[in-house]
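Hi again,

Forgot to attach this to my earlier email, sorry! This is the prediction with (2S)-amino(hydroxy)ethanoic acid bound. I've pasted everything inline since the attachment limit keeps bouncing my files.
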Amino acid sequence: MTTPADNLRINGDRLWDAIHAMAKIGPGVRGGNNRQTLTDDDAEGRRLFQRWCEDAGMTVTVDQMGTMFARREGTDPSLPPVVIGSHLDTQPTGGRYDGVLGVLGALEAVRTMNDLGIKTRYPIEVVNWTNEEGTRFAPAMLASGVFAGMHEVDWAYDRTDHDGKRFGDELERIGFRGPEPVGGRPFHALFELHIEQGPILEAEGKDIGVVTHGQGLWWLQITLTGKEAHTGSTPMPMRKNAGLGFARIAELVQQIAMDNQPAAVGGIGHVDVYPNSRNVIPGKVVFTVDIRSPDQATLDAMKARVETEAPKIAEELGLGIEIEVAGHFDPVTFNEGCVTAVRNAADRLGYSHRNLVSGAGHDACWINRVAPTAMVMCPCVDGLSHNEDEDITKEWATAGADVLFHAALETAEIVE
Ligand code: HGY
Ligand code: MN
Ligand code: MN
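Structure tokens for the complex follow:
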């Protein structure tokens, strides 16, 4: 079915300029970004986003988790919104496009609707979710998780960062602790545009990933307790070396992932060693195991192996061990209708595409529990992300935003 809007496209130059204006805020050390959640840089990026949305005629509201919703009215304001967006917070060694493409691609869709005088029956809301990354405050996708009813606001407020600062206090400090209740209101649908953060689309020469599923994840925070002692004068048999325990569990996690190929990954990205002194045997090591799989049974079996085998390693080395869940979501199957809207949009626009399972977690993974949801992905160079060298082309960004624009228009219904 063709519609009058079929040949409408977003303004790729304007989108590209917006992305790189945002990239100037919270710069990294090698051309990427370090705009971590609830920092002053995050606040500055939020204020720029808010100004752009208001310049585009939208009304911005902020909820109690700091999530920002910029609303473009439809012809029937009583209807629930079609929500499009992602996150503006980044990793410490983040790229310029992870999350940002989704938020500013959504803003560009609205700017194009304004340019063309398009009216939609359903309202459109552009969203910037707070703390998608979970790097400063675990878990990841914290605000969308509260919106989906997975966490309470007070529990989220009590999350602390490495320096002991509370999420709720930091949100207040940057001036984005909004009045709106979190969640409890319907979305007609949600679409999130995101870079793939994997190698498939580029390797296959595909413009668009039609995301049908998302991997599930466990974050297990493990605390190993040994005994500080002199690295020079303490005989080997007398040592209670938490650092050695960490090394062996890191090997275990690698082995568990390799035993479940091809549909499993596992690794450790966060480690704190105490006292972290060159000539003291570590008395304590705290680290987070990150295991993922698109298959529920595989994911849970991997978690069970860590919970069974890690304590055995600790016991052999005379270490205490504590394992806590620091984050979790099950594998996701996105909404069939929304996925079809994404695929139809790519077809109509003449973009090559293929079905894709998202390797990374996204706010859409949580919102899929409370509203019809799907994702659009574009390629990224060498599949690299969570690295300042993360890179995409203007053409890929434009294709992704075009598909987001059309999926949103089809779902929000153009009014002639
Ligand atoms: O961890 C993730 O998959 C996402 O980047 N927060
Ligand atoms: Mn992201
Ligand atoms: Mn990320």
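The mean pLDDT is 97. Residues 87, 98-99, 132, 194, 362 surround manganese (II) ion (ligand 2) (CB under 6 Å).

That should be everything now.

G.
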